[in-house]
Each structure stands twice: as structure tokens, then as C-alpha cells.
């Protein structure tokens, strides 16, 4: 049988099938189509303004590597006039983060972008390994997100882009449907989320890109990315697709449903948009921050959901503050009215939180309580320093508003 | 005389042995029926006639002769009989039962002739209509053109065929299990809505249990039909001017099965569900079947989470949809839901632009092999 020719140019040999519409494309056309779609997403949502400084949350994994590569290409091709840099968080996971950071460093050279690495140890006095040793695998993302924000704040950058793809958004939609959390569902699907605590905007330009296409893009452009799974974030990868387009279908449903969420929940848009932090905390994995190996297709949905569910079950069980558990009960009881979340700032660090003290601070407090005195001293200095910074920022914010 | 000694007395009447434990209550079969039926009867209160009401509304109850819809019929009918028995009791509504022949949807389904006969004898007060799925061409006159337009070049429509053959040719042209199940549900809904319109019914009472609604919500979302949830899962106005209601939304499938087991009159009416076999290739399942299995398996472990799903979907507001263009086939909103502008998944897919069909229907088209 003769090789299939490309759907677009009708000349070259097709090498990939797009999960979205089953078009068979050649290498060049696929790369072009992929980039054009990201470009359309960016221009259609007015994501950036000329001269804006953007920090790319880079983990060395495929999503962030592709994001960096695409943004660099598009920035040059369409003259966005963006000032791009890479921002990496070093959680201090031995054997995983060390290697992936090497990839980020190589990427920084390849793309000629400045790179900043912020360490957990430096921010909190705790590395991920130590955290996990102490309390298990909960709450890790609360801290990661704040670290990204703090890193950006340190660089004086107002906009962080992350490599969240369509699969991640779809996962958020399904999971929040299971959790019964409509406000979060509507937040999770929007492309831009501004975080009130630090005034830093977060966006996901790859929101409509299938994870599979990201892998293909990385492969065909021979990008240098890190492929070991985050050891704290297991994912199912093997899957038989029932309907390959369903990832985008879920995203579509999520967007539609977000528009149908009763007004009083999505209330004064502000508090809604400000909770960027919350939405990521619940992805149940390190999101796209890690390098997942093969493009896990949607059809493992059943498995994936089970996984989400177990993660969720664990969450309520192990959560440190009892408040979390109480909340769940309340939502179940008041089933009629959609519970609205009021957002304030954490008393300790000033980061947005729906509780008096934010999750990350509670987590840290729990950690520090159990730590030998000598270690605290070293750790606390850093923590003090950064929280003073946050307090100052909060104050300036208050005076501004 | 001392009361009869009972080892485990019913918590409510204290006069009979416990038969079932439902939501931590140990009840005898009569109290169980009362407890379960109350959840449905409570939902009927909105039809309690006011002083100004002149005409008694009509309600359409589509009956598949499965457990859930049969139980619903028996509960609603019991309430009507109770109202009739009262000296000045007012009947809330008139019931019209619609039976769509399951064998016309899937030829492997057994004939329902015997069950239908028993049904007519058992519940005598409602009016009955029995139809086949291809009667949709009579009830929805545009359906021929819509299907012709929808199926595209891949499907050669032959107008000389009978309605029955024409519809089965169309359904045979759909390649994947997911699309087939999706379109069957769309056609069924259209037919039920059209019958309700024709008989001047105010509402349709669907016999979907909580478990089924959860599965439908998850499957609908996976198929890009999130915006249709406002009437496919929540109680609300459908695009055809008839309210869709799901009175069994508080009840799990297992509870309905238990209820049916203590209703001897239902035993000859209900066609039991074929048990789900474990030895199926996931690849050959439709998303709908997959979700039913998922809800059944997980619902056994975490019933609360599954009821979350249906309850969450019930909170969506349909008012936002009104006024927009709707899909010729399924009636769902076309293009972007009001409030979503700019780049969305709709514009990213590209193929539904300028079409008279919605995103979800475009996904199930016969020429699309995904």
C-alpha cells in the first residue's frame, strides 16, 4: 500500500494522525498547524501585550519544553515583543529534579533565555523529599504554586505561563464534577487566572493542545526534554482510545458548563479569578510540571478517574487541618445552594486563601513542629525573610487598593 | 397481650421484621416502600393544584419497562390512586404513558408484547401510547431532512424505503459504538419530546435513577455535550417547550431494585437488565456504557461521590442558554454558549462553524471516524 499523503499539502508522506480530527499530516505541516493553533489561542484571548515580561514555568518536562520552544518561535515569527525567561522550581527531589534541572539548563542555553532556579530549601527550609518523608504526598502542589509565584515576584515578573495542556484541563473538569465543585470547575477551564495574593497572572497557552500532540511536536522538532516521571506523581499512560477527540470534547463541555454556573457562585468575578492557586492544587499529580513519558490518551479515563478518586479519598483522610474535612460535609449538607468561597489572605504569608491560614502555611507549620530545633533555625530565617517580603507586598497592595 | 417478639424490629413501625437497611435505617418492606416513595412523592408537590388552576396538567411518562421507569410509574400511580380515594382529594395531573418498543431500537431485545399486556391490566388509569423508534419520522416531520443533512455524503439516503428501513440504514452508517449510542439517545429524546408536545403535556417524567444521571452527566461531558446537561440531567425546560424532570434523582439503582423486589405487581412487567459482563474490550464499549459501568463499580464503593455528580449538574443554570442558536438535531446550543467569547474549544475544532449542528453532534457524525 502506498504511504498516505499529507492532508494539508497533499505532497509529503503523512507521519502523524491528529487525535482531534483524524487528519493525517506530514511532519512540516503538523509543526506548522500546531504552532498556528497556539498562535490563534494567544491572539484570540489577548494573552500577552507587547513588551510584557513572561516567566515560563519550566520543569524540563515535555510540556514546558514545548511551551518554551513554541513561544520563542512565535515570539520571533509574529513579533509579539515578549521578554521571555525560564523559571524553575527545585523541589529537591533527589534523582528526579537534579536531572530535569539539567535539562532546563540546557534548554536555557538552546533557546537563549535567562534561567532562574528557586529552591524549596531556600524558600521554606524544606525539600520535597523531606516533606514527603514527614507527611506523605499531600499538599505538595500548594507549595509548588506559591514557589512559582514567589520566584516570579523575585524576578519582578507579572505573568507566569505554564505548560498545562488539554488533558490536564479535561482532568480538572472531570474531577471537579466528581467533587461537585462548580466554582472550581469554571475556574479551571479559563485560560488566564490572576492570583490576587501576588498580582501575578497565570496562563496556559497550551490549553487546547493534546498531550499526545505535544509529545509528537517535541519528537518531531527533536526537542531536548526530560522523560522520567515524577516519582511522586504516578500516572497511567497506556490506554486504548475509545474516542480520541474526547479530551477536547471535555474541555468544550467544561467551558460551556463554566458559562452556566449560577451567577452567585461565579459572583464578583474577582474572587473567582483570583483563586488560581486552588485549581492546581487538586490536579492530583504534578500537573504538567513533570515529564510524563508516553502520551497517555484519554481512554484510560476510567482508570484515571479511579486514580483521582483514590487521591481524593486520601486527601480528605490525611489532610492536616480538620477544616478541610468539615468543608466537605458542609457542601454535602447544603446541597441546594452552591457554596460560595470567600477569599481572604493568609494571616502568615499574605497569599490568597479561603481559610484563615493558607494550606501551605498549615502544612509548613505541621512540618516545623516536628523538626529538631537546630534545623528550624536555619529554615526559619529563610521563611521569615520571604514572608516579610510577602507581608510587605500585601501592605503595598492594601494601600494601593 | 404482649407484642410479638421480633429479633430486629423495623425502626419505623416496630411491628415487622427488618427486611432492608437503607441509608442506615432498618425497615420492613412496607416502611421501605413508603420511605423510598416519599422521596418521589415530595417532588410531585409542585404540581399540587392552586386555587386558580383550571386545567389539570398532563404528564408524559416514557416507560422502557426497565426497573427504574417501572418503579416510577408504580409510585406515581399509587399517589394518584391515593388522591382519588380521598373524598375531596385533588389529583395533581393526568398521566400519559409512552412505551417505545425496545426491540425497535435493538433487534436483540425480546418482544415486549406480554409485558405490555400485563402493564395495561395492572395500571388502568393512565392513557397509553406504544411506538417504535422509527415513528420519529411521523412525529418530527423535519427529521428526514435533518438526518440527510447531518449524515453527509457518507450515507446515501433512500427515500423510497419505509421509515423503519430508512432509520436503520442511517443508524447502520454510524461507525463507532459511542456515536451510535449518542445518536440513539438523541433520537429517543426527540421522539419523547415530540410525543409530549403532541399530547399537550406540560412535563416529561424520566425514570432515570441517580446512578444513571451521574453516568449520563459524565458521558455527556466526555462527548462535548456539557451545555445540554441543563435538561439532560437537571430538572429544567427542554428546548422543545416541555419540562424534563427526573423524580428518581435521589434514589440509587440498587434501592430501586430492592423496591421492585417487594412490588409483586411489577414482576411481570419489568424486563430485567442484562447483567454487565466483565469480559468486554473497553475499546468496543461506548462512552455511555463505560460510564454506566464506572458509576456502578465506583458507586458501590463511594456512593456519595456519584450522587455528587448528578447534584452538581443539577445546579447549572439553563437561563444562560436561552436565545442562542440551537442544534437542528439534538436541540442543544450551537457554537459558543453565551458568555464564552473569543477562542474556545468550539473555534478550535473548526468543523462545527457555520453548520446547523452543535459540537456534540458533529463529533458523532457518520463520516468522522473518531
From TrEMBL, chain A:
Residues 283-292 have a biased composition (Polar residues). Pfam families: ATP_bind_3, zn-ribbon_14. Residues 263-296 are annotated as: Disordered. Residues 344-374 form the Cytoplasmic tRNA 2-thiolation protein 1 C-terminal domain. It comes from the Eukaryota. Residues 54-227 form the tRNA(Ile)-lysidine/2-thiocytidine synthase N-terminal domain. ATP binds at residues 57-59, 63, 89, 163, 168. GO terms for biological process: tRNA wobble position uridine thiolation. Keywords: ATP-binding, Nucleotide-binding, Transferase. CDD domains: CTU1-like. GO terms for molecular function: ATP binding; transferase activity; tRNA binding. SUPFAM superfamilies: Adenine nucleotide alpha hydrolases-like. One of its GO terms (cellular component) is mitochondrion. This is Cytoplasmic tRNA 2-thiolation protein 1. The lineage of its organism: Eukaryota, Fungi, Dikarya, Ascomycota, Pezizomycotina.
TrEMBL record, chain B:
One of its GO terms (biological process) is protein urmylation. It comes from the Eukaryota. Belongs to the CTU2/NCS2 family. The lineage of its organism: Eukaryota, Fungi, Dikarya, Ascomycota, Pezizomycotina. Keywords: Cytoplasm, tRNA processing. HAMAP family: CTU2 (MF_03054). Pfam families: CTU2 (PF10288). Pathway: tRNA modification; 5-methoxycarbonylmethyl-2-thiouridine-tRNA biosynthesis. The keyword tRNA processing applies. It is found in: Cytoplasm. GO terms for cellular component: cytosol. Plays a central role in 2-thiolation of mcm(5)S(2)U at tRNA wobble positions of tRNA(Lys), tRNA(Glu) and tRNA(Gln). May act by forming a heterodimer with NCS6 that ligates sulfur from thiocarboxylated URM1 onto the uridine of tRNAs at wobble position. Prior mcm(5) tRNA modification by the elongator complex is required for 2-thiolation. May also be involved in protein urmylation. Transmembrane segments: none annotated. This is Cytoplasmic tRNA 2-thiolation protein 2. Its main location: cytoplasm. GO terms for molecular function: nucleotidyltransferase activity; sulfurtransferase activity; tRNA binding.
